Amino acid sequence: MSIGPLAEDAVDSYREAGEILVETMTEARKMIEPGVTQLEVAEYAEDAIHESGAGLAFPVNISIDEEASHATPARDDDTVFGDEMVCLDIGVHVEGYIADAAVTVDFTDNTELVEASEQALEAAIAAVGPGVEVGAVGAEIESVIDGYGYTPVLNLSGHGVEQYDAHTGPNIPNRAVERSVELEIGDVVAIEPFATDGSGKVREGATEEIYEQVAEGNVRDRRARNVLEEIEAFDDLPFAARWLEGSRSEMALRRLKRANLIKGYPVLKEDDGQLVSQAEHTLIVTEGGCEVTTAGIHRFD
Ligand code: MN
Ligand code: MN
Hints:
Largest sheet: 5 strands, antiparallel
Structural class: alpha+beta
Distance between the termini: 23 Å
Strand order of the largest sheet: 7-6-8-14-15
Number of strands: 15
CATH topology of the largest domain: Creatine Amidinohydrolase
CATH architecture of the largest domain: Alpha-Beta Complex
Oligomer: single chain
Order of helices and strands: HHEEEEHHEEEEEEHEHEEEE
Helix content: 25-40%
CATH superfamily of the largest domain: Creatinase/methionine aminopeptidase superfamily
Strand content: 25-35%
Bound molecules: manganese (II) ion
């Protein structure tokens, strides 16, 4: 059935992407344990998604402790999980229609920090419906996280998704905002509260493993041209440096960045170096409220 302006095919694809995400997330999170490499978990999830016949909306993100977003293992990365707070964020697409969801796996005994972002997500979802301002959704998030004595990460927000576009409007703030955009039937949005015991702001770190093509064009350097050809297969969606063939693609990536053909996503870290938890779902706004396409990964689902 179509939902508002969304065609039946699009709705089916959003649902299928969500189902594949939930299956993958369920298995991948079980693998996360101290001593296991991050790369093993990321590659397991990425392979499972491909084997399901779906595509990756972005590289599997594994963010540790003060990292909030845009972290993914490097090529041949042998970093293992420790007694850490681990955010696992997965993006799947079917025919370009995207599911984006995240869970936090905690080995630091900060159960309440994890609960804070999960409960904030549950409250946000309960508030969603046509005609509801995104600022009112943000107010729910802020109020729940405040109630736990933590701070939402204010300069990260949820977002719309569209075909082959993992980050579009509307922005879903993680705090109360007055006079904001109203949600409409057929909007597909990812809501993602982040909770921290730090300042509530993230800044860019030094590591950069995720990129995205932003323009068409040519480069003279042969190796950069070959890498650009490889990148074109990613449909303008974010990709990981480790996905590129050959271990000497880093120089090519730098050249492509200088030519403004790709952009990088540096890892985002909590400004005070404090722990960050994250909970995320993708949902379709419906007449009666919303349909969560990624349901089955959080305790409240
Ligand atoms: Mn996400
Ligand atoms: Mn997201």
